[in-house]
Amino acid sequence: MVKNKRGALEFSFAWIFAIIAGMFILFLAIYGVSKFMNIERSSQDAQTAMDIGTLTNPLESSFETGKRIMISTSVETRIYTGCKNNTFFGKQTIRTSQKTYNEWSNEGVNVGFPNKYIFSENPAEGRNFYLFSKPFELPFKIADLMYLISTEDKYCFKDSPDNIEEEIEDLIGENPSENENFFTENCPSESINVCFKGGSKCDIDVNTNSKYVEKKGEIMSYEGDALMYAAIFSNKDDYECQLDRLMKRTEQLSEIYKDKSKFVFEKTGCDSGLDVELIQLISLVRNFENSEDIDIIYNFAEDIAIQNNYGRCRLW
């Protein structure tokens, strides 16, 4: 009788040990799969960010100005664009988060691009995104500014100047798709209202006389349509950071054109007459602090552009 009880006791401990060991192994397996899935999702998010950066390459050409491309993702995606200026030329950052099994993945790692300038809401969310670009010149071409907008965000451009209205209509085309998100009339009720003459129902105000965009109570000064769109589609922190990066790029290009002017004069005797002006432009952009300084720099650059266009030795 005792022997049977001892056997039963030994049998019970064996089963308890087997159950505990099995649970532990199962836990390790689930934990390992979960970690692998998180790593895999992070890898996919980083790859998506890299792909988005690559897809912007066709827009970095003046031949593509006024054209849009669409980026589509297989699942709901949040695209986070950012700006860092902790190095001389700074960096455009892109990271993504994707929705799988009704849950958003952790934001992926930042993928950096030193030669891109993307303006977007943060985050831009959806499965389809439009990209278009405009060149930024000061007075020569500095870079192509790119604008990324989810098709889920509908923008209504109210009372816009003729040139802006025509450009928006060109982007829309004659046969708007079901994903259209730009409107100049018959705007959807949920539209983000971009007003050029003010109004009580405006989400974004554009003052074309004083050259500023007011958005969420913040003011962003601009010059030229390229920066106007940048202010409309981004936030103040990113806008100011990108503008600072553009000024640093302007400084280096000005140095190159100054050296080119000297080289051309020494080789051909042809004087561009812009050496002093380029030195002054370099000084202005070096002392750039924020968007409120852009009007002085822009007006000075326009004078240089006129001199270059009508000069005997054009530098660009």
Mean pLDDT: 86
- The percentage helix is 40-55%
Number of strands: 13
Strand percent estimate: 25-35%
Please report the distance between the alpha carbons of the first and last residues: 105 Å
Low-confidence blocks of residues: 36-42
Instruction: Tally the structural domains.
Output: 3
Instruction: Write down the Rg.
Output: 28 Å
Report the principal-axis shape.
globular
SSE ordering:
HEEEEEEEEHEEEEEHHHH
Category by helix and strand content? alpha/beta
- Main beta sheet: 7 strands, mixed
Number of helices: 6
What can you tell me about this protein's structure?
The chain is an alpha/beta fold. The chain has three domains: 1-152, no CATH class; 155-233, no CATH class; 242-310, no CATH class. The protein contains six helices and 13 strands. It has helices spanning 2-55, 162-172, 224-233, 236-268, 275-286, 294-310; strands spanning 68-84, 91-100, 103-104, 111-113, 118-120, 124-137, 141-150, 155-158, 182-183, 192-195, 204-207, 212-215, 218-221. The strands form two sheets. Strands 1, 2, 3, 4, 5, 6 and 7 form a seven-stranded mixed β-sheet that branches. Strands 9-8-10-11-12-13 form a six-stranded mixed β-sheet, covered by helices on one side. A hairpin with a 4-residue loop joins strand 11 and strand 12. It is globular, with a radius of gyration of 28 Å.
